[in-house]
Each structure stands twice: as structure tokens, then as C-alpha cells.
Design brief:
With 225 residues, this protein is an alpha+beta fold. The protein has three helices and eight strands; from the N terminus they run H-E-E-E-E-H-H-E-E-E-E. The protein has two domains: 76 residues, OB fold (Dihydrolipoamide Acetyltransferase, E2P) (Beta Barrel); 87 residues.
């Protein structure tokens, strides 16, 4: 039985193979070009602006579609520093407590001055008959009397201080009492996240009131061509 389809000549087969190979190369080139173009559109020219510090978003200064320059503030972040305890030196002291301490100190001074006065008086009384009998020198008695006079003056000063302390206590009781010093507001600092280069804002992911961490993405820009 004869073959209805004549066999192709070797020459015709070679031409067909060359043409098929050429078509395959063209198709691969087109596919590679298309893939490369998609990668450029998706991966090139995008700028991510991150939060420089942790804090709360105070203001969003741009919107999607805006064209910005390098250094343009995009988002403002407020950083709050909690107020520490008020230093001891600046705390308001209770007037009643202060007056009470002043009274205690004045009473202690009175007791010490009174004891010193008694000792000086005893010394004067001891030396007086000895000097009269010639068993002690007059200079010793004069020194004891001078010390007794100084002790008396210190006792009078201590008693005056005690009176002043009592007056301070009376005045403190008349003053309105405050339980605690006024609270100190926390300190605030505004830090702006800025565009690192010129471009168009494509995405704004920050919202007013958001709590953000350092390095968190806030906006995406498409770089200017």
C-alpha cells in the first residue's frame, strides 16, 4: 500500500527546525522582557519612611498623591517624658511639722543651756570660799563667774527661740493645709518623620493617635523620575 503523505525532504525538515528554534528564542526574549518590566514597576522607586522614635502620632501632614521634596515633614510624633518625683528640696513642707521641729529644737537648747548654767553656778559657789581662804586664786573665781554669765545669756537666747517657735506654731495652725504638692505635667517633644528624597506619597499608614515604635513604617513614597 502506498503512503498517501509524501515524505518531507531533508532540506525542508532542516528549514522547519531552524524556523521553530527562532520562534522559541523570540518567545523567550519577550517573556524575559515582560518579567523584567513587572519587577521594575513593583520593586523600584519605592521609599519607605519609618518612625524615627517611639511615641504617639500627633499630626499627619501629607495625604496620598501629594508631591513632596526631600526633608519634607510627613508625620509628627510626640514623645512624652513622664515627670519624675519632685526633688526633696522643692517639696512643700508641712508648716505644722516644721513648727513642731522648731519647738523641739528650742526645748533641747533650753535644757542644755540650763544644765550649763547650773554647772557654772556650782563652780562659782565652790571657788568663792576657797578664794576667801586663800586656797584658790581670784582669777579662777573670775573665770567661773564669766562662764556663768555666758551660760545665762545662752539660756535666755534659747528661751527666746522657744517663744519664736511657739509663735510659728500658732501661725502655722492658721494657714490652710495642703496635702501634696501640685502635680508636674510630663514633658513633651515633637519629632517629625521626614521624606528622605523627593517623590509622590502613595501610601500613608499612620493615623492621628496611633502609638508607634521606632522603625515602624509610616508612609510610602514613589521616587520622582
Amino acid at each position: 500500500m502506498k503512503n498517501k503523505f509524501p515524505q518531507s525532504s531533508p532540506r525542508r525538515a532542516r528549514k522547519f527546525g531552524v524556523a521553530l528554534h527562532a520562534c522559541a528564542l523570540v518567545a523567550l526574549a519577550v517573556l524575559a522582557s515582560a518579567c523584567a518590566g513587572g519587577k521594575d514597576d513593583a520593586g523600584r522607586g519605592l521609599i519607605i519612611v519609618n518612625a524615627p522614635v517611639a511615641g504617639e502620632v500627633r499630626r499627619v501632614l501629607v495625604r496620598e498623591g501629594m508631591v513632596v521634596n526631600a526633608g519634607t515633614p510627613l508625620v509628627e510624633i510626640v514623645v512624652r517624658t513622664e515627670a519624675r518625683g519632685v526633688p526633696q528640696a522643692t517639696k512643700t513642707e508641712d508648716p505644722l511639722a516644721r513648727a513642731g521641729r522648731n519647738i523641739d529644737a528650742a526645748q533641747a537648747r533650753i535644757e542644755a543651756a540650763r544644765a550649763e548654767t547650773v554647772r557654772a553656778e556650782v563652780e562659782v559657789q565652790r571657788l568663792t570660799p576657797l578664794v576667801a581662804a586663800g586656797d584658790a586664786q581670784q582669777a579662777q573665781l573670775d573665770g567661773a563667774r564669766a562662764e556663768y554669765e555666758r551660760a545665762q545669756r545662752r539660756l535666755q537666747e534659747a528661751q527666746g527661740a522657744a517663744q519664736d517657735a511657739q509663735s510659728g506654731l500658732v501661725a502655722a495652725r492658721r494657714q490652710p493645709q495642703t496635702n501634696a504638692p501640685a502635680p508636674v505635667a510630663p514633658a513633651e517633644q515633637i519629632v517629625a518623620a521626614e521624606a528622605t528624597s523627593a517623590g509622590t506619597v502613595s501610601v500613608v499608614s499612620a493615623r492621628v493617635g496611633d502609638r508607634v515604635t521606632a522603625g515602624q513604617p509610616l508612609a510610602t513614597l514613589r521616587a520622582a523620575q
